[in-house]
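Hello,

Following up on my earlier ticket. Below are the three sequence lines again, exactly as submitted.
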Amino acid sequence: MTISYYLVLAAILFTIGAVGVLVRRNAIVVFMCVELMLNSVNLTLVTFARATGTVDGQIMAFFVMVVAAAEVVVGLAIIMSIYRTRRSASVDDANLLKY
Amino acid sequence: MGTVPAEGLLAASWLLIALPLAGAAVLLLGGRRTDRWGHLLGTATVVAAFVLAVACTVQLAGTDGRSADVELFTFISAGDLDVTAGLLYDPLSAVFALLITGVGSLIHVYSIGYMAHDPARRRFFAYLNLFVAAMLLLVLGNSYVALYVGWEGVGLASYLLIAFWYTRPAAATAAKKAFIMNRVGDVGLAIAIFIMFAQLGTTSYAGVHGTVGTLAGGTITAIGLLLLLGACGKSGQFPLQAWLPDAMEGPTPVSALIHAATMVTAGVYLIARSAPIYDLTPTARAVVLAVGALTLLVGAIAGCAYDDIKKVLAYSTVSQIGYMFLAVGLGPAGYVAGLAHLLAHGFFKAGLFLGAGSVMHAMDDSVDMRRFGGLWRKLPVTFATFGLGYLALIGFPFLSGYFTKDAIIEAALDRDDVWGWVLGGVAVLGAGLTAFYMTRLMLMTFFGRARWEDGLHPHESPTVMTAPMVVLAVGSVFSGALLVSVVPLSGWLEPVFGEPEEAAHVVAPALVGLVVTVVMLLGVLAAWLFVGRREVPVTAPVRVSPVTRAARNALYADAVNESLFMRPGQWLTRALVWFDNRGVDGAVNGLAAGLGGSSSRLGRAQTGFVRTYALGMLGGAVMVAGALLAVTAG
Amino acid sequence: MTPGDADVVIGTGEAVVFWVLGPVALAGALGMVLSRNAVHSALWLVNTMLALGVFYVVQSAPFLGAVQIIVYTGAIMILFLFVLMLVGRDSSDSVVETLRGQRVAATVLGLGFAGLVGAGIARATEDLPVAGLGDAQAEGNIPAIAELLFTRYLLAFEVTSALLITAAVGAMVLAHIEREPGSRQTQKELSRARFLTSDRPQTLPGPGVYARANSVAAPALLPDGRTLDETVATGVEPQEVQQMPRPTGREQLGSPDAALGTLDPAPADSGEQR
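Thanks for your patience. The regenerated structure is below:
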């Protein structure tokens, strides 16, 4: 077993997150899928930090977490305010931006 | 002959143009406020111009070389083209200026009475003033460009005045016809000016006439023929004669001033002014001759058949201008004769038209001669003046037409070759036809039984109308003798056309006069036999000989024009429109429709669903990953 | 595997951890995407995140592993659950796909993406030597991170703090509902309005109150014996619950226990006792 296993696992998790974004309609679940994608990237960063022998990758992962936290706060607030006005958390209901 | 800078009054000759132009501007811009005195202002400006023209001419007579150049301002300065707006006051333009302002003044005075009851009298005088200004610019300009500006100006004024009663469809149509047929000629004139500029680099008379000899013969001939085309359009010469009779839809003073005395003689002026060019191209000159001779006959024949008094006079005008073209086509020998005939014609034809107007005035605007008859008793002044004009026109001995027409015939015979005899014969034949149709007109209008509509009470016109007629009648009687013998026009015009050659006189002038008089009397006799002896039917007979029918249709000039130019033109237009609609528009619209359709189809991809867009992103990511793999693996 | 080992192959102990927790992480991810209930999705995601946290610890990043578990699993997922509670269930939880071909296309593209990226990474890194972090964090993981974070990445760190403040303010602004000044009602006004507009001044009784059953599906009983269907939570089907007959007369109300009666249906008895 090599570290490429971790990386392949991260790729698969990332893909599952991406597919989840595409198929789920509940904005909150979509958000969770995005979090999953971010986490898989974090796994990649940590793995590469180990492979290269530098801590920088872990720092990157740390920053990703911070940014993800900020993103979650703002994103959920947006979902809340959309829900307040439209009484729906479905991403398909916000479809006015078109031809 | 040298041209000197103008001094004194001559330097102010631009006022000749400015005065009527200012009158037109005031009348057109002033609107209804000028309704009450507009006609007086219009007349005053032209009379003032006449006085000024007389004074200028007197001063010119005393000037060295009898040619004055009035430089005004730079008109066009573009690259090599440098057109200075300037006036050339020389004997030729002086003669025309006097004719235009003189006859113009009389007709303005006449119009005060003739148009008294027309609500748009002010507009009429504005247009008349505009015409006089443009016509004076035409004859006084010192370059072909200035002439062209005036040329178009008179065309515009003619159009406006023919369509003066624009609510009548016939008048509107006639105006369009005149305008369009004039355009055909104007294109020729314009191209001739283009050639002058391209080849000689100048358009002034002095420049062109001084250097035209350096051009190739073919170019000179082309210029001559194109100028002739322009002259034909403006003067109603064959093959562009058809508009002139229709132009009689305008008010009668317009017919007298524009379509008899002045504007239609602009072609003669153009050819006379361009004498140095025609001197170099016998071919073009021969064409001028042919056009003149042909028009002379065509006009005279058509004039024999019409019952509309103004149309008969119009065809008479066509025919008489044919005489003038014939004369100026003869070269140096004929210029003076042609211009003398032009001046005399200006008098008697204007008088005849004014007389016709007076008759119409009396007959409730009817123009049908079959409804006239016996008017000599009711309209004595009109009858007398009209009769004098008639005698002058048919060349009754010792009236003006006699002198001027004989001079033309003599000049033609003096060519001393077969063509001289042919042209002379045509001219003599034309004189006989002229006598015929004019006598027919006189008989049908003034003699015989009264055939008026019921309830008509013909009455003599007011003095303001008859006075100009009297003046013109006097001019008709004496102008010929005056111009040929007393104050010889040939001597006056010598600075322009050079020393008059001593006439060869192949045939003795007395003999020519005798022959012409005899032919004229034969014409009169024939008219009396055909018309005077019998009762004139009120409606035109339907069963007539083919000759009469052809003459009634003006020798099918309109039909020929229609089938030769109008129909193919319409076909071409239709084909072009079709091509434009289907081909050009089809391509452009098709492209636009294709783009619109494809964009609206592509727009469907914009569903508004975020997930669809995200799917696209994932697809793109897959492609990028595949591409990266392909690159690194390959 | 010992720290500082530059070997390609990873030790057996870690392999065991990987082969146990890897499938758990995958299952959590799949479960999150596939489960119909959003709350279940969140729980599945917690599962995956915990597994990832263990992976971090195993890969010489114990600090990150702790942060993963505390911040992500603890804080962020709780935030998710809070919002889920606020929003509640709605039609977006339906598993019926409304966009034609979306699911198929997403699956195909996802498989293609996973295949391409996975294959590419596997090919590129299967021979990658593992330097290990033994030298880099000889004094421990946290001092190594702290040293880098407060030296080389100081600016980024400070900017991140600004980002967090901004996010907090932004969330407050977004979640805040602006009321018209003066539209806020006093307690007195609220009380008055309640008495004027409603026939029930007090709060609703909880479900099952006074009923002879304590199920949430049993509506409360009013003092006069009528049921009050509003007391049943939305989304719960009110159910007919077998109830004790009510005592009808004062003579029947003995001790409180007697007043409650028994579950034996005895409507006939009551008639006889009368």
